[in-house]
Amino acid sequence: MATKKFMFVNRKAPYGTVYALESLEVVLISAAFEQDVSLAFIDDGVYQIAKGQDTTGIGQKNFSATYKALGDYEINKLYVEKESLEERGLTLDDLMDLTWEDEDDDYEEKPSIHLVDRADMAGIMAQQEVVISF
Amino acid sequence: MKYTLMINEGPYQHQSSDTALQFARAALEKGHEIYRVFFYHDGVNNGTRLSAPPQDDRQIQKEWSELAKQHDLDLVICIAAAQRRGLMDADEAKRQGMDADNIIEGFRISGLGQLIEGGIQADRTLVFGD
């Protein structure tokens, strides 16, 4: 089957609605189809990969650890919009340390998160063939 | 052009299903192909046959069902999303030990792979959601 450039755009907070959780289910399936997958985190979507999530008070499953597994599925292009972080008083230090192992480079651990500004994000989106937003 | 549509919101609550329906009709009229329509999140509720809106309102689920019949459309409801929200075809109801099924004619239940495959096969994938 052909390989296409897929981008999944995450715009919503991880809890409060089911979008983030069900988006992650789509992302994991796309890995099985060996597509060129990237993720975008914009607006409240940046909270999906925030450090130290604790859901004990809301009785919902904390699925944030799943993002750490994405690197093992060769999903390692996670574009985070700089302005979205800034608007929420967040920096890269507030995000989880998401990495992948580059088997072509002696399994060196490399960061999956790429901080890009709004204009760059638009450019990256324009290069995609399939953009699915949640 | 060949399109895959994704519908992420339930009928009546949100306009996305209406818009997608109108898009699908317009595209077909212009001679385009709808490769697949994939229903996800609360969008799976577009596939129930147990909807009974007031008579002067539109009948969204029936309209999808009829459009599918006319144009032999592939309307797919995501199984994982459907299980959470109580959408069942006869096989799934039996498997889950449920006493009823509620899927309308013209829809089928399948996996998320159908969305990805739809994205690969189509020239354009359009998402109708919030």
UniProtKB/TrEMBL annotation, chain A:
Transmembrane segments: none annotated. Keywords: Transferase. It holds the Pfam family DsrE. Signal peptide: none annotated. One of its GO terms (molecular function) is transferase activity. The keyword Transferase applies. It comes from the Bacteria. InterPro entries: DsrEFH-like (IPR027396), Sulphur_relay_DsrE/F-like (IPR003787), Sulphur_relay_TusC/DsrF (IPR017462). Belongs to the DsrF/TusC family. This is Sulfurtransferase complex subunit TusC. It comes from Leucothrix pacifica. The gene is tusC.
From TrEMBL, chain B:
GO terms for biological process: tRNA wobble position uridine thiolation. GO terms for molecular function: sulfur carrier activity; sulfurtransferase activity. It is found in: Cytoplasm. One of its GO terms (cellular component) is sulfurtransferase complex. Signal peptide: none annotated. It comes from the Bacteria. Keywords: Cytoplasm, Transferase. PANTHER family: PROTEIN YCHN, SULFURTRANSFERASE TUSD. Belongs to the DsrE/TusD family. This is Sulfurtransferase complex subunit TusD. It comes from Leucothrix pacifica.
